[in-house]
Amino acid sequence: MNIEGSLVSIYYELDGDECTLILSPVRAEQVRKGGVNIKISFAEGAKTACILGEEDLRGGYAVYTESYECIVGAKGVSARIKYRSGDDGEKINLKVRALAIQ
Hints:
- It contains no helices and nine strands.
- By secondary structure, it is mainly beta.
- β1 and β2 (about 5-15) form a beta hairpin.
C-alpha cells in the first residue's frame, strides 16, 4: 500500500493476476492485469464502466455508483462503495479497509 496525501494505492494478487485499487476521497478505480484485463471506476452518482480486455478485443458494461465514502488517514484507508452493475442492475456493496504496516 502506498499513501500520498489523500490518494491510496493498494497492490495485491488475485488468482495469479496483478491488481491495483486506487482510492481517493471522490473516486476509486480497480485495475486487474492477467488472463482477462479488467478496469472498473467508481464515482458517487456517476455512470461509469467496467472494461474487459484491451485494444480491439474489449467490451464492458455500465456501472452506476449509488454511494461512495472514503476516509484516508496516515495509517490507512476505509472505503464503502454501493453500486449497480450491468443492465440487470445487480446491487453490490463493497467494503475496503487497509492498514499501513510500519
